C-alpha cells in the first residue's frame, strides 16, 4: 500500500487534494452554520496569506495561533503553510502561564487570536493589548505586536525537512516541548484514510477534537484529504452531537474514550435511541481503550468502535485497529503501512514475540525534533532514526500491538510490574463508574497504587463496593491501596485525563493507606 508517493509538498496542498474532481463540494460547515466549499476555502487561504504577509509574516517565522476550532483558525493554519511559516497552534483554554511559556519558547513573529469564537482567546488577547485586524474572508482577528527580534528559521524545499506545525505537549512546569512536525509527516498521515478507503468523499464528521492537538489536527486533515465534509464545533455539545447522529447527518463519529463514556452514560440515563443512523464507524484514540467501553459504544451506536494509537511526536498515528463488529478485541492494531517498529527490553534488545517491551518507531511520521532542544531530541530518537515512544506494548500472533501502559506510569508494587490500564479497565466495568485513572505513589521501599474514579452522573460510588468488586478480578499485588472518588476527573483541553495532576494530588493530599 503506497502512502508516500504524490504527497502534497505543503499541507495547504491537502485542500487541493480534497477538491479534486469537484471543488464545489462542502469542506466545512463553520461555527456559524455557514457552508464552505473546497474552492472557497482554498481561495480564502490564499487571500489570508497575502494579509499575513502584509502584517510582516515571512517564510521561516513562527506564527502562534491561540484558538478554539473555527474557520478562522483553520484558514490561518493553511495560510501559514502557503507562506512557509511555522504554525504554532495552541489551545485558547490553556492558562496564561502555559501560553506565556510557549510564546517564550518559540519566539513567534506575531500571535493571532480567534477572539470572535473564543472568549478565552479574547481574554488572552486583551491581556496582550492585541489589535483588531480584518482578514479578508474570515473577518476580525486580534493580532499581537510584530516582534522585530524574532529570527526566521531556514526554509527547506524538501517537505520532509520543512516544519509545518509546532505542537506543544501539555505540562505546566519547566520548559515546554515544541514538537516540530514536517509537511511530509502530516501529509503522510493525512492521506491514509483516503488511500486505505477508510474515509470517503461522502463522509461527514464533526471537527470537535481541538486542532491544536495532533489527534484533532490529523482527524481534520484526513477528512480534508479525502474531500469529505466537517462540521466545526468549537466546544463539544452533547445535545448537538446526538442530534447530528440521530438526524443521520454524521457518517463517522470521533471522540476520546472519556468523552465516549459520557455519551454512553447520557444515552442510557435518558433512555435515548441512537439507532438507526448513518454512521459507518466510531473512532477513538489518545488513551487506552477497555473492553467494557468498546462493548457499550457498539451497543449504543450500532457500529464498530475503532481505535487509533500514536503520539504527538509521530504526527500522531502509529497504528490503527482492524476490528470486526463485536469481536471484543482491545488491541491497538498493526502499525500503519510505511511505519517500522521494534519492541525492546531494558537491555535495548528486541524481546521474544508476545513479550512486553518498550516500543520504538521509525518512519515518515516521526517528528523532526523538539524546537530548540537538540539534546532532548537526541534522548528520544536514536542514530538509526527510531523514536522511543515510552510505551510498553506486546504483539499478538496476528501482528496487532497490545498496549500495556506507559513506562513512566509503570508502578512497581512489591517487585511486580503493574500497568495502570489493566486496573482501569476493570474499574470501568463497574456500573457506577464513568471513568477511572490509576497512578503510583512512592512510599518507603515500595509503591502504592492509587485509583481515582468518577461516578456515573446521578450515581454514587462506595469505595468499599469497589474493593469488593475487584476481588477475584485482579491479582493481589495489582489491587489499589486507596480508591479516591472525584465528582469529575481533571481533563486537559484535548479531552485526556490529566494524570500528572492526579499523581501530584496523590503525593500531596491523599492520606496514606
Q: Could you tell me the mean pLDDT?
A: 94
Give the helix proportion (percent range). 25-40%
Largest sheet: 8 strands, mixed
Unreliable residue runs:
none
| CATH class descriptor name of the domain at 13-18 and 31-186 | Alpha Beta
Q: State the secondary-structure class.
A: alpha/beta
Distance between the termini: 53 Å
What CATH architecture of the domain at 13-18 and 31-186 would you give? 3-Layer(aba) Sandwich
Q: Please state the CA-atom Rg, rounded to the nearest Å.
A: 23 Å
Multimeric status of the protein: single chain
Strand order of the largest sheet: 6-7-5-3-4-8-9-18
Per the principal axes of the C-alpha atoms, what is the gross shape? Answer: globular
* DSSP strand count: 25
The CATH topology of the domain at 13-18 and 31-186 comes to: Rossmann fold
Q: How many H/I helices?
A: 15
Percent of residues in β-strands:
15-25%
Domain AMP-binding enzyme C-terminal: 422-496
GO biological process, one term: fatty acid metabolic process
Pfam families: AMP-binding (PF00501), AMP-binding_C (PF13193)
GO molecular function, one term: medium-chain fatty acid-CoA ligase activity
Amino acid at each position: 500500500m503506497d502512502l508516500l508517493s504524490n504527497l502534497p509538498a505543503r499541507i495547504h496542498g491537502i485542500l487541493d487534494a480534497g477538491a479534486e474532481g469537484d471543488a464545489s463540494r462542502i469542506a466545512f460547515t463553520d461555527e456559524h452554520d455557514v457552508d464552505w466549499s473546497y474552492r472557497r476555502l482554498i481561495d480564502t487561504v490564499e487571500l489570508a496569506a497575502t494579509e499575513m504577509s502584509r502584517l510582516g509574516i515571512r517564510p521561516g517565522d513562527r506564527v502562534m495561533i491561540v484558538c478554539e476550532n473555527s474557520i478562522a483558525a483553520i484558514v490561518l493554519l493553511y495560510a501559514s503553510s502557503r507562506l512557509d511559516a511555522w504554525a504554532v497552534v495552541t489551545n485558547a483554554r490553556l492558562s496564561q502561564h502555559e501560553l506565556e511559556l510557549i510564546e517564550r519558547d518559540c519566539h513567534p513573529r506575531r500571535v493571532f487570536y480567534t477572539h470572535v469564537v473564543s472568549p478565552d482567546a479574547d481574554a488572552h488577547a486583551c491581556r496582550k493589548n492585541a489589535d483588531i485586524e480584518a482578514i479578508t474572508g474570515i473577518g476580525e482577528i486580534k493580532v499581537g505586536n510584530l516582534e522585530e527580534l524574532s529570527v526566521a528559521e531556514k526554509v527547506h524545499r524538501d517537505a520532509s525537512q520543512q516544519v509545518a506545525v509546532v505542537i506543544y505537549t501539555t505540562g505546566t512546569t519547566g520548559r515546554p516541548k515544541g514538537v516540530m512536525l514536517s509537511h511530509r509527516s502530516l501529509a503522510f498521515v493525512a492521506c491514509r484514510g483516503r488511500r486505505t478507503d477508510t474515509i470517503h468523499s461522502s463522509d461527514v464528521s464533526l471537527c470537535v477534537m481541538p486542532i491544536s492537538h495532533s489527534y484533532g489536527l490529523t482527524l481534520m486533515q484526513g477528512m480534508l484529504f479525502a474531500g469529505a465534509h466537517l462540521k466545526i464545533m468549537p466546544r463539544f455539545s452533547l445535545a448537538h452531537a446526538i442530534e447530528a447522529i440521530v438526524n443521520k447527518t454524521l457518517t463517522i463519529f470521533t471522540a476520546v474514550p472519556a468523552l465516549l463514556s459520557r455519551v454512553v452514560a447520557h444515552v442510557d440515563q435518558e433512555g435515548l435511541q441512537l439507532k438507526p443512523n448513518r454512521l459507518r464507524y466510531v473512532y477513538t484514540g489518545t488513551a487506552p481503550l477497555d473492553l467494557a467501553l468498546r462493548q457499550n459504544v457498539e451497543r449504543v451506536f450500532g457500529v464498530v468502535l475503532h481505535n487509533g494509537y500514536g503520539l504527538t511526536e509521530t504526527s500522531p498515528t502509529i497504528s490503527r485497529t482492524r476490528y470486526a463488529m463485536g469481536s471484543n478485541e482491545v488491541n491497538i492494531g498493526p502499525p500503519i503501512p510505511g511505519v517500522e517498529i521494534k519492541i525492546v527490553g531494558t537491555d535495548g534488545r528486541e524481546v521474544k514475540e508476545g513479550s512486553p517491551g518498550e516500543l520504538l518507531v521509525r518512519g515518515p511520521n516521526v517528528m523532526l525534533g523538539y524546537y530548540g532542544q537538540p539534546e532532548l531530541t537526541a534522548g528520544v530518537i536514536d542514530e538509526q532514526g527510531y523514536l522511543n515512544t515510552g510505551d510498553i506494548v506486546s504483539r499478538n500472533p496476528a501482528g496487532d500491538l497490545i498496549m500495556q501502559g506507559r513506562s513512566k506510569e509503570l508502578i512497581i508494587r512489591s517487585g511486580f510490574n503493574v500497568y495502570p490500564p489493566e486496573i482501569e479497565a476493570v474499574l470501568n466495568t463497574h456500573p457506577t463508574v464513568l471513568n477511572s485513572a490509576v497512578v503510583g505513589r512512592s512510599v518507603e521501599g515500595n509503591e502504592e497504587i492509587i485509583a481515582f474514579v468518577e461516578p456515573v452522573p446521578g450515581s454514587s460510588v462506595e469505595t468499599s463496593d469497589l474493593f469488593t468488586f475487584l476481588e477475584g478480578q485482579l491479582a493481589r499485588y495489582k489491587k489499589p491501596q486507596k480508591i479516591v472518588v472525584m465528582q469529575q476527573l481533571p481533563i486537559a483541553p484535548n479531552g485526556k485525563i490529566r494524570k500528572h495532576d492526579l499523581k501530584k494530588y496523590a503525593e500531596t493530599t491523599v492520606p496514606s493507606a
